[in-house]
Structures are given as C-alpha cells and as structure tokens.
Amino acid sequence: MAVIINSRIKKIRRWKKKKMKKGLTMLVAAMVITGLICVIGSAAAATNIWVESNVRGVGHLTSEYEVDTEYGLANGIEMQELESGSGLVTKQKWTLEVNPIGIEYDTGAEVCLEGLIEEKEFDVEYFPITYQNHSYDQKWMEKKCVKNYDLGAVTDANFIQCEKLQKKESVVTFGNGVEMDQVWPIPANKTYVTLAAGTPSIVQTVSADVLGISHIGFAAKDPNQHHHTIAYGREETIGQFSIEKTIEIKSTCLDAQIGDWLGCP
To answer: Which residues of 113-152 are buried (b: 16+ CB within 10 A; e: fewer)?
Structure first.
C-alpha cells in the first residue's frame, strides 16, 4: 500500500511541475509580446502625431495648438494656431497629422518624411453668455501662422472681431527632413537604394464666409539671402465677405540657414 501511495505522490508532483513549467512558459511569452508591443508603440509615437477634435455647443471656447518639427531656432516646420470666442459653436471639426508619411522601402528601411497636414471646419456665431455667475463676452477670433524654413515660405490666415464665421481650411506642407531607421543586415533578396530628401512645399486653401475682419497673407523668401523676398501678398477685409483662396509654394532645391528670418506677413 505504501508503495502505491508513494507512486501516486510522485505522479502528482510530476504533473504539478509540468503544469507550472507550462504556465511559466506562457507567462514569459506574454511578457515578451507585451514588451514588443511597448517598443513598437514607442517607435510609432516618435514618428507620427495625430490629433482629432469635434466640438459643438453653446458657451465660451478657447483652443491653442503649436507645432515645431525640429529642435532649435528657425528649423523645419512651425505652426501656431489660436481660436477663442463666446456664443454658438455649430461645428469645430479639426484634424492634425505631423510627420505623416511612413513608407516601407525595398531596402527594409522605415522612412518618415517631415511634414504637416491639417484640415479644419469652423462654424460659429457670437453672442454674450452667462454661466455659473461668470459672464463671457468675446467676439470670435481665429489666428493661424505656418512657417516652412526649408522652403523659405510662410502663410497666415487671421479672423478677428467676428460675429459670424463659417470656414473650411486645409494646410499641407513638407520639409527637407527625412528620418531613416535602416534594417541591418539588408536581406539578400533586397537592394539598397539611396534615399533623397523630401521636396519642400506648402499648400493652403481657405474658404470662408465672415462677418468681421479677415487677413490672409503669404511670403516667400530666399533661404540663402534672407533679405530677398521673392513674393509677398496679403488681403484684408472688414465687413461681410465670402472668401476663396489657394496659396501654393514649392521648391526643388534649397539650403536653409540659421536665423529667425521668417515672420508672419
């Protein structure tokens, strides 16, 4: 009887060890998968930023956004945007993507082309409001300035003192910067290709019905001769206007220099 009991005890112990080993293997596998997800997530977050906003209501709204794609003064792409006002917000639909293009080449390299894409719809009407014993009385304001130092171009669109503003706008701009994470060694069935920098460009479209004051302008300067303005323009309206405008500036080869030499027109 003792021999039978000891035999059963040994079998139970072997079964428990086997089960524990299997559970430990599954736990380690789960930890490895989680680690891989964390690493991949961190890498993706460093190369792509996506923001989406959809706001409707009655009250006071203030929004502020800023983009700077490169470290240091007067480099890469910069954007500053501010909007605020009181009253009815029928629509504030907005998306922003920074450094948006990631392409898998035959080299096995992950490439991110420096850039910014923004699309926005804005429909507001002014009237003063009171909420929780606080009064808010501000006509609508929306200001935006986009600078591309690689291109030497800047655009801005400002709407202030607006009683009504219905606006649809898009901005697409790319710089020279290319970040490459090369996979080494290159697989035998793939060929290495030298990657060229991006072509700097900026395209801004504005479609607006405004009762208030508007200002839309642009400037294109020579990055090698900062005092040389290649093209400049601005348009201002006071009153009730319908506005349709497209600004497109492109270049194929530029060598930007250091210095804060772009200002909003």
So the answer is: bbbbbbebbbbbbbeebeeeeeebebbbbbbbbbbbbbbb
How does 159-168 read in b/e, with b if 16+ C-beta sit within 10 Å? Answer: bbbbbbbbbb
Q: By three-state DSSP, how is residue 232 classified?
A: strand
DSSP 150: T
CA dist 209 and 168 (Å) reads 9
Tokens linked to 44 = 């993706």
Contact by Cβ (8 Å): 207, 243? yes
Distance (Å, rounded) from C-alpha 26 to C-alpha 23? 5
Are the beta carbons of 116 and 151 closer than 8 angstroms? no
Q: How far is CA 98 from the centre of its chain?
A: 3
Question: Locate tokens 């706008």: which residue?
Answer: 169
Q: What is the pTM of this model?
A: 0.68
Mean pLDDT for 161-172 is 97
φ/ψ of 75, rounded to 5, equals -130, 150
Domains of the chain, residue spans: 1-47, 50-250
Ramachandran region, residue 133 (left: φ > 0; alpha: ψ -120 to 50; beta: rest) = left
The whole-angstrom separation of Cα 112 and Cα 99 is: 7
Alpha-carbon separation of residue 60 from 63, 83, 157 (angstroms): 10, 11, 22
pLDDT score, position 243: 97
Identify whether the C-beta of residue 147 lies closer than 8 Å to the C-beta of residue 154: yes
What are phi and psi for residue 190, nearest 5 degrees?
Answer: -125, 155
pLDDT at 157: 96
